[in-house]
Amino acid sequence: MVKLRLRYVIEDVDRHGNVRLYFRRKGRPKIRLTGLPGTEEFINAYQAAMANNGEAPRQTRSVARGSFRYVCQAYFASPSFKALDSKTRNWRRRALDSIC
To answer: Which among 21, 78, 81 is positioned nearest to 45, based on CA atoms?
Structure first.
């Protein structure tokens, strides 16, 4: 028996013990692959995911104007923040993000 290994294909087991195959690239949502591995339906779903997955950029949630997160993002983009040493910037960003 030959085991088929395709790039970006992962197995997930649901709470009922069913194994499901997904196409997943880093920073992208998972796409469920239908059909049994090795079948034409599965290969078509894989090829569609390969062609489709790179086009849609990941959407970020909008931040409410006037919120603490909004103020932090404005601070991170400011020249005074960018003038700081990289270690100081990283420390402040982590500290403020944990509060947000």
So the answer is: 21
Rounded distance between C-alpha atoms, residue 63 and residue 65, angstroms: 6
3-state class (DSSP) for residue 46: helix
Give the global pTM: 0.49
User: Which residues are registered as beta bridge partners of 76?
Assistant: none
Ordered by start, the domain boundaries in the chain are: 9-53, 68-99
DSSP string covering 2-25, please? PPP--TTEEEEE-TTS-EEEEE--
What is the pLDDT, as a whole number, of residue 58?
55
Torsion sign, CA atoms 33, 36, 41, 46: positive
